[in-house]
Predict the structure.
Amino acid sequence: MRVKLISMFPQTLRNRLFLAFVLLIVLPHAFLNFYYFNRVEVVLRKQTADQSLEQIGAFNKSFEDLLNVAYKTVTLLEQDVSVADVLQRPERYDQLNRVYLMDAKFKSIINSLFISSPPVYFTLLDQKGSAYASFTPHESLSYTRLSQEPWYDEALSRPYGYVWKLDRNYVNRDISRSPNLLTISALLKDGKYARYAVARVSVDFYEWFRSATRFAQEQYLLVDRQGTIIADSKSANAGQTKLIHHSMQILKKGYFVEGTSLYIFNEIPRLDMFMVKRMPMDVIYAEVNRLKRSFFTASVVFTAAFVAMTRVISSTITKPLYNLQRKMAHAVEKNFLVQLPEDKYRGEVLQLTKTFNKMLGDIHELIGRLKTEERKKEAVRFQALLSQTNPHFLMNTLNTVKWLAIGKGQEEIAEICSCLGRLLEASVNSELDMIYLKDEMDLVQSFVYIQNFRYKQKFDLNVQIGEGLEYALVPKLSLQPLVENSIQHGFMEMEGRGTITIRVYAKDRMIYLEVEDNGAGLKNTPSDHAGRKRGGIGISNLKERLALLFKDFSGLELVKLEQGTLVRFYFPLLLSTPYTQEVKRDVDGIARGG
């Protein structure tokens, strides 16, 4: 199957280039054109929706201002002293004076709200059987009938809030022909919160809607939460159709496509309604469709010309490449010791030839360098094997001397051999860079034991290790060179007995190791030959090892004391508790439940 698929592909470079151009350029280009035109339509739809949402937001704000007029009307009625006096004490006035006074106050309130042709109407019922209105009603005012309508009970059951309701239009047809009004009802209360009247305030939102959308070319709708179209700017069939979409049930504002139209909606929170704008899709995409047809026509012509040019270009490339391939094969046969002629080519092929010639020179130079390094590695390996042979020979010899000393009863010589063997074994083992602190201290003790015999017990060793640091990891043979410096440079010119103190402590997640002696100390002038010459091979070697192991998280310093010298170095604290048989038994016991 795989062989059959491979045989279907072109075998020559020219045909492969042509196929690659078609698959990697022409087809992706056509796909991207189709994709980006769809993206343009999506972006255009979103931009149109965003612009429309701004327009709807302005309508909503105007609608909110209209509703606020209703709230202000209730406040002005409640705060007017004359209106309150007529409603609370109607017996002080005769009927004509009451009606005249209330009409004058109603006109004053309307004028204070700057409403030239007011789409807001209000009705007042006192507690004494009188009814007043700011408009000419469709039916004569009847206190009994009005007090039995739902809005009156709504005001009594909700004394501290307003709820907008859709109410039948009760205004005279000469004033308003709208089928419905938006109504709120409220209680009017005095300073002691005692009610003295019930007010009904209605908004002629149909009149406002017709006025707001009069010059708009698009269709605007007022839709309630159930999807019923309450008002339509282009049709008088409101309430006979429904417009409901899941986006309107979830989101407060947005847009959706249904059929051939784009619908943009924005919620009117106080009314639990939506202002909706409908736009036909063919109007939105008219210009895009014209551009799409023109572009795809040009793309077809361009693609045909591009395919023809591809055939020509592929032929001009493959022929010199074939010649270059033969020359390269000849260069490989001659072990890269030949150069391709550069005077026969031009353009990109010439640059390729020059690059290939440079590559041949670099390869030849690299092969020579690799051969030289290989010979050096073999020499180093030989020396490493030789250096391992000598220490092992010395260790075997020390063991022989040790057993001979034990046989002769020379315990001190045997112990010196053991100490020297431990030091030699530690230096030979190159696999470990870090060892336990307790093992490092054993090496120091072995070194000090040997040196005490050499210098006839001329110094003492004092060790102070912080609690729990025995298994801290430290660089191997890091303390021994410092102790050796103290012995050789600190005590040689000193009379009396010397003391070397080793301190190990932890601080701020770092471990500090100090080697202090009471020897000759550091001198300030180089002419002072009696002083010590610190900073030799041992200390510089340790400083370099710390830098390799811990980078910038380590340090080493020499401190001049009144009597002697202190060397301090530090690095991150690393604890490693060994896994012993005792620990294993404890773990097994816990696993068995005790």
Summary: The longest strand covers residues 180-189. The chain has a mean pLDDT of 78.
